[in-house]
Design brief:
- There is one protein chain.
- The protein is mostly helical.
- The protein is built from 9 helices and 4 strands.
- The strands form 2 sheets. The protein has a two-stranded antiparallel ribbon with strand order 1-2.
- α1 packs parallel to α3 and α3 packs antiparallel against α4.
- 18% of the residues are buried.
- The C terminus is likely disordered.
């Protein structure tokens, strides 16, 4: 699962605009496999979101939600395992005392005995050690979440302002999910919610300021047109006026 595969998966799902459990899980798996390349993951998600059509921006936001919540779950799990390992080291039995050498023994008395293995663990083989080194710790997941949090408002506001209005309630629900799950900093989420409210107020005020063309007053009359040194007023919007050519060739305006 390479970064290129992740890029293809994300763009394919966003372009399609429809989500399935299998498609979302594939994107999440690719993201978790490359979590140490958090900047590249975020770049792919953000580019796909900006390129998404208006109806598909919500799909993009759902992908960000799925990847972020999985990263948060794994960060908590890794952090707990790291703490448990730390406690295990602290509660290890003390080093066994060095027995006194027997008479005539040539064994040096300052040679330490082999360290006891942690309780419940077995000897680490080279293959197991290599596998442990490949598994990311909580810091990798938290680093990714911090980067997403830094541009989270751009994802949400773009979906709010440039997506269909009927999707706005679903955007709010995503924010509610993040708040309840503790996916992101609550202060950041509150700030984003305030921006959504402000954006809605601006849109409503702008709509109210636009005049209704059906309520427009009669158009103002056209400016007078000079003919043979005299000015005549045309009012093309009122039927009580009409024009005719007089016998002497001068355009006259008669009131009906």
């Amino acid at each position: 699962m390479s970064l290129q595969d992740f890029d293809k998966e994300v763009n394919k799902v966003v372009a399609k605009g429809k989500l399935s459990a299998a498609a979302v899980q594939s994107v999440v798996d690719h993201a978790m496999a490359n979590i140490t390349s958090d900047a590249n993951l975020l770049s792919t998600l953000f580019r796909a979101h900006k390129k998404a059509t208006s109806p598909n921006k919500l799909t993009s936001l759902y992908l960000v939600d799925a990847v972020a919540r999985e990263a948060k779950t794994r960060a908590r799990k890794s952090l707990k395992e790291e703490k448990d390992k730390g406690k295990g080291k602290e509660t290890d039995s003390p080093r066994a005392p060095i027995p006194a050498p027997e008479t005539g023994s040539t064994t040096p008395t300052d040679e330490p005995p082999p360290l006891p293995l942690p309780s419940g663990s077995s000897e680490t083989t080279p293959a197991k050690a290599s596998l442990q080194q490949q598994q990311p710790g909580s810091a990798a997941f938290m680093s990714f979440l911090a980067k997403v949090e830094g541009v989270l408002s751009k994802f949400v506001l773009d979906c709010w302002e440039n997506g269909p209005k009927e999707h706005r309630e679903k955007v709010r629900k995503v924010l509610d999910i993040w708040t309840k799950a503790g996916t992101f900093n609550p202060t950041v989420l509150a700030r984003i919610s305030n921006k959504l409210l402000a954006s809605s107020s601006v849109v409503e005020e702008t709509a109210a300021a636009i005049p209704d063309p059906t309520q427009a007053k009669d158009a103002s009359p056209a400016p007078p047109i000079p003919i043979s040194g005299k000015y005549f007023q045309f009012d093309l919007f009122r039927p009580r006026f009409f024009a005719r050519i007089g016998e002497i060739g001068i355009l006259e305006i008669l009131e009906g």
